[in-house]
Amino acid sequence: MNRNTTPAELPDALPPPEDLAVTGTQVAYWMVCHRKLWLFSHNLNMEAFSDFVEMGRLLSLERFRRERKKEVEVGRIKLDFLRVGEEVVVHEVKHSRALEEAHIWQVKYYLFALQSLGVPARRGVIHYPRQMRKLDVTFSEEDRAAIQEALEGIRAVLARTQPPEVERKPYCKKCAYYFFCFI
Ligand code: SF4
After folding, report:
1. Which of 38, 44, 95, 152 yields a CA-CA distance of 20 to 30 A from 175?
2. Predicted local confidence at residue 15, as pLDDT
3. How many CB atoms lie within 10 A of CB 56?
């Protein structure tokens, strides 16, 4: 997928409703591991028991206490917070930069979803409070096609009757599903 940063025009037409039935987490997992996406989407939600995820949640709660009140839900999509000034900017808080590419596509999906509903959102910011870093994300025209392609891919993975095979990846040891795959 392309990370280019030329802002996109807003779309004329709304996407089919099933597009917005996919969550941002599923888009991120599509980027990370199709097996993880399948397990998570079949309600095997090990993330709820993961120390890494809990640590990220607590950190986010502490650092962005005021903004947490601005959490926004769009269908099944849950945005950490929005800032609405001259433009609408999506903000996402993450614990670690290890899966930065997946975080970028998660935010791009949020921008895609908001634009599809007629909200003029073209920019996002990913916060990594632990590293005291921020990453700007801009939605480009090419991103729209890439997101639509990802959504098709996600639906194909979810339609499988069995989880995709284990594929060892550098982040497996920190994955909440490690015990399902390697023990
Ligand atoms: S442990 Fe590795 S292969 Fe298994 S779900 Fe997680 S990332 Fe995918």
Report:
1. 152
2. 56
3. 19
Assess whether the C-beta atom of 177 lies below 6 angstroms from ligand 1: yes
Task: Please report, for the chain, the start and end positions of each structural domain, with discontinuous segments joined by +.
Answer: 19-178
Which of 69, 91, 95, 89 has its CA nearest to residue 24? 91
C-alpha 65/C-alpha 102 separation (Å) is: 24
Ligand 1 neighbour 87 (Cβ under 6 A) = no
Domain 19-178 has CATH 3.90.320.10: yes
Q: Is the CB–ligand 1 distance for residue 29 below 6 Å?
A: no
- To test the pocket of ligand 1, the residue of 35, 42, 53, 167 to mutate (highest count of ligand atoms within 8 Å of its CB) is 35
The one-letter code for the residue type at 11 is: P
Query: What digits encode the pLDDT tens for the residues 78-100?
Result: 888 889 998 999 999 988 888 99
Give the pLDDT confidence score for residue 135 in this predicted structure. Answer: 97
Give the pairing of strands 81-84 and 121-128. Answer: unpaired
Q: How far is the CA of 29 from the centre of ligand 1 (A)?
A: 10
Tokens linked to 141: 């025209």
